[in-house]
Amino acid sequence: MSYTYPDFISAVSSALESPITDPTLAAPFVDGKYNDWLPRAIEAGEQRIYRELDLLLGCYFVDPTGVLTPNERQFTLPTSIGNFIVVTQVAVMSPTGTRKQLNPVSKELLDASWPTDVPAFTPSVPDVWCPFDQASIFVGPSPDIPYSMEVTGTVRPTPLSSTNISTPLTVYLPDLFLAAALVSFIGFQRDYGQAADDPKLALSWENAYQTAMQSAQVEQFRIRFQSQGWGARAPSPLASPPQT
Fold this sequence. Notes:
This protein is α+β, with helices and mostly antiparallel strands.
């Protein structure tokens, strides 16, 4: 069952046995130290899940607002939706609106095949691309006109907060996110110092996180048609031969 920011605050309050004034506030806890750590606990939980779980729902976007610069192979990724973390597909759009998928290659191959930024022929529509840095890629051959570009990939959703009361994690993976946040919160509360009085409590939530992560990974493989037999069915330990 999904939950919202106030539900999350109430659950954290119960787990930490910490009183709150109002679960809808940005600083909901009576103890100011908990309020200081709250954004860090949310950040730690969200970033851990986004990195460990290739989450499709709510994290993959298509941004068609990019534009190539003529006679230049470097292309700055569009940011109208957000900053791309992982780019999975790049397509160039012809003036008539036809989409042409570019093939990913190594920078070494791109450099050897197109050693200059000046197109050898016109029209010059890119065929391949390679990563350069977090904000840009290289294409080859360089374009002769400012073709539109469509980029598909992973973008970090807006973090959970009092002004953004739900995220893909609270909607689809509420149990996993709560466990991840509590690992950080309880570690801050009791176990990150020499005076730790309950070193096993954070470990218990870590175990809960790992258990939830296992089932979440299976579900994500099913969503992507990467489950047993490259399909959407749940893996069957009794099926022999495997489902295809």
